[in-house]
Amino acid sequence: MYRDVLILYCRAPNAAPTETGMSRLALSDSDKQARDWFVKTTKALGCTVTIDNIGNIFAVRPGRREGPATFAGSHLDTQPSGGRYDGILGILAGIEMLSVLQEHQVETEFPVGVVNWTNEEGARFPISMMSSGVWAEEIALDRAHNTREVGGGTATVKSELERIGYLGSTPASYRSVPLAAHFELHIEQGPILESEKQKVGVVKGVQAYKWFTVNIDGRDAHTGTTPLQSRADAMLLAARLITHTHRLATAHNALASTGILTLSPGSTNTIPGHVSFTLDIRAPADATVEAMEADLKRDFAALAAGKDIGGLLANSTPGKPLSVEWRTDFVSPATIFHPDCIGVVRASAEAVTGDSSLVRDMSSGAGHDSVYASRRCPTSMIFVPSKNGVSHNPEEYTSPEDCALGAEVLLQSVLRYDRMRAEGKTQAI
Amino acid sequence: MYRDVLILYCRAPNAAPTETGMSRLALSDSDKQARDWFVKTTKALGCTVTIDNIGNIFAVRPGRREGPATFAGSHLDTQPSGGRYDGILGILAGIEMLSVLQEHQVETEFPVGVVNWTNEEGARFPISMMSSGVWAEEIALDRAHNTREVGGGTATVKSELERIGYLGSTPASYRSVPLAAHFELHIEQGPILESEKQKVGVVKGVQAYKWFTVNIDGRDAHTGTTPLQSRADAMLLAARLITHTHRLATAHNALASTGILTLSPGSTNTIPGHVSFTLDIRAPADATVEAMEADLKRDFAALAAGKDIGGLLANSTPGKPLSVEWRTDFVSPATIFHPDCIGVVRASAEAVTGDSSLVRDMSSGAGHDSVYASRRCPTSMIFVPSKNGVSHNPEEYTSPEDCALGAEVLLQSVLRYDRMRAEGKTQAI
C-alpha cells in the first residue's frame, strides 16, 4: 500500500545524479510549494492544520478522545544539493500513515498527527534543527527569526516566512502545541544497516559530540637547510596527532575525524611553523567523549614535547618541542530517547520484518529534529538503510522496499503508542 | 681589517626585526642604487667593469698575466622581507678582498674579480638563480628577459634592466666572460654550524632534491554516521604517509618535508575524500633521493591499501582502501663542486681559524649561483654560521666576527687558487 506513493519519490538505482538530486532550501519558493501540498493533502485527509510563528506545520487527525496527538514528524527542506530522502521520507511516510488510517476508517484512541519542522538542515539559514529547537524553547524565537540567509543575501527567516505566507499566529512552543510523542522515520545516512544486511534501526539516542580546533606552533624553516633534529615541524606533529587520534577512537569505541586543516606559510620548500586542524569527537555517551578529550589533551602535549606515545616516534629523529593549544568550538551532549518509544519501535520493526535479526538498536550519528522533540515529549526514531551510507548528496538512495518497510514501522509505532496511552501504560519524560 | 666595512652591515644582535630587514628586489630602484655603488666602488679599486645583457656585473682587477679572472661572487638582491646577509655578504666580502689587495698593493698572478649575479632570489621575477643560469647557458636569455614580475605587474626583466640602465651589451655567456673559478661566501641559512659550535663550512656541493605532489582519493562521508571501518579517510591516510615519510628520511639520512596540504570538501563534520600535499625530498646524492622516492611510492601504495608499514596501523581500525597518485613537480640533481676549489677553501679555513675542529665539510641545502657557475668553471662555497638557522627573514643574523672570518677565508681561497694556477696545478672541470 505504501509503495504506490513512495515509489514516486524513489529514483531508479542507476539514474545519473543530476536526475535524482533535490534542492529545496528552507522557506524558498519550492519549500512553499511543498508546504502548500502538505497542507492541502493533510486537510483532505481530515486533519486540522496549525501553523506556528516559526512556520512549523502540525496536521492533526482527531481520535476518539481529546488530548495531544501522537506525531510522526520530520522536515521538507534539503541541503543545496541534497537527495530525495533526508527529511522528506519521514513526512511522506507520515502522510501515508494518515491516508491508510483514513482509507481503512481507523479510529485511534487519541489524535495522531504529522509535523513538518522548519529549517532542519540549517543550510540556507545557518541554525540546524532550528524550529524544533524553538518549539522546545531551547532556541529563542527572536534569534531564529532574525537569522539571515547565508551567501550575503538580505532575507531573514521572518521575512521569508512572511513572503511565503507561513508566519503563523500560534506561538512556537511545546506549551501551545504539546506533542504526546514524536516518531521520526529517517534514512540512516550511514553504512551500518547496509553492511550488516539489516533493514530497520531502532534509534535509542543521538551520539554526544564535541568540536575542537587544535593549533600547533612550531617554527618556519627552510626544507633544504634545516636538519631533521633542528626542526619544529608543525605539519609532522599534526600528522602524528591525527594518526594518534584515530587510535584512541578505536580504543574508546568512539569516532574522531579531522575535516579541516590549514597550515602556514604554505610553500613547498618551507617547513610549516603553524598548523590548525579541527577535531570532531563522537560517542554514544558523554563520558566517553570526555574521556577521549582528556586522553587526547594529555597525549598531544606529550607528543608535542617529543615524548613517544604508542610507538609513533619510533625510527624517527627527535626534533625541537612545539606547542599545542585547544579551543572548544561546540558541545552537543548525548540525547537518550524514551524507553516507551524505543520499545514500540522495536516491537513494530520486529513485527513488520518478521525477523528480529533484521532489526538493530542504533545511535544516530547526526542530529535530527527528534533531538529537540525528545526534550519535551517521548521520542524515538526509525532508520532505514542508506545505499553506501551516502547522504547530503544526489547519490543518496534508499530502495522503495526499504522506504515502505520504514513507513509500515512508523504507522505501527504510532498505533502501538496510541494503544499504550489508551491503556495508561505510557510514562512521561 | 674586514671588520670596519662589514660591521656597518651587521645589526646589533637584539635589534627589533623591523630595524634589521632588507628589501632589495631584483632590478628595483634600490637594486639600482646598490649596483651603482658596486660599479663606482670597484672602479675606484682599479677594476674594469663589464655588464652583460642580463645585468650581471663583472668587476676585474688585473693580474701579472692575462687570462680569465678568479672570481668571488654572489648577489645583491633579496627576498621581499629578507635579511642583510643572504647574498650581500658574498659581494661585500669580495669588494673587501679587492680593497685589501689594493691597500697592500698585492699583485696577483692572474686577474681576480667580483661578480654580482642578477636575480638570484627569483622573488620578484620567479626564476631562481636566473642570471648565473643564463651565463651558464642553461636558461635561455629570451625566457629570462621576458619573465614578468609577480603580483600582476607588467614589468619584465628586460624592461627593468633598460629602465635602471643595466642592460649591458656583452652577451650573457661563459663564452664571452669566462671565469677561471668561482668562490662564494654565503651564510649557511641552516643551524648546523651554530649547533656544532663550528665557524666555517667547506661546501662540497649542493644537495639533490625532488618535489612531488601526492594526491589521495578516498570518499567524503559524514563524521557522525560513518563508522571507522567504513571510512576512506584521505586526511587520516595523509597523516600516516607524512609520519612515514619522516621515518624513511631518518633511515636514509635524508630530508623530507611537507610544506603545503589542502583537503576537500573542508567541513568540520565531513571526512575529507580528497587530500593533496607536497613532498620535498633532499639528500647529498641523487641515488639517495631516487631510493627514497622508490621506497615511498611502494609504501604509500601499501598503506593506502590498508597494509601496515612499520606499525603505523597498530591499534587502528581497518578502513576502506584509498588511491594515491604522484606527480613530479621539479627535479634538481646534486651538484658536486670542484676538488681544487674545495681544497683551497678547506686549507684557507683551517689557516684562518687555526683550528681544524672549527671547520666542517658540508652540503648546501639550498640552491645558489655557484650551482650554475660550477657547470662552467671550478667552484666552491664558504659557509658561515646563521643564528638559529634563520634566513629569508629580518631575523637573519651572522655576527660581525663570523662575517669577517668568512671574508678572510674568501680572500685566502682566491689567492691560493691564483697561486695554484700560477704553478699549473689546477684542473679543468
Automatic annotation (TrEMBL), chains A, B:
Domain spans labelled Peptidase M20 dimerisation: 209-304
GO terms of molecular function: hydrolase activity, acting on carbon-nitrogen (but not peptide) bonds, in linear amidines
The organism's place on the tree of life at top rank: Eukaryota
InterPro entries registered for this protein in UniProt: Amidase_Cbmase (IPR010158), Bact_exopeptidase_dim_dom (IPR036264), Peptidase_M20 (IPR002933), Peptidase_M20_dimer (IPR011650)
Keyword tags: Hydrolase
Keyword match Hydrolase: yes
Family, per entry: Belongs to the peptidase M20A family.
Name of protein: Peptidase M20 dimerisation domain-containing protein
Organism phylogeny: Eukaryota, Fungi, Dikarya, Ascomycota, Pezizomycotina
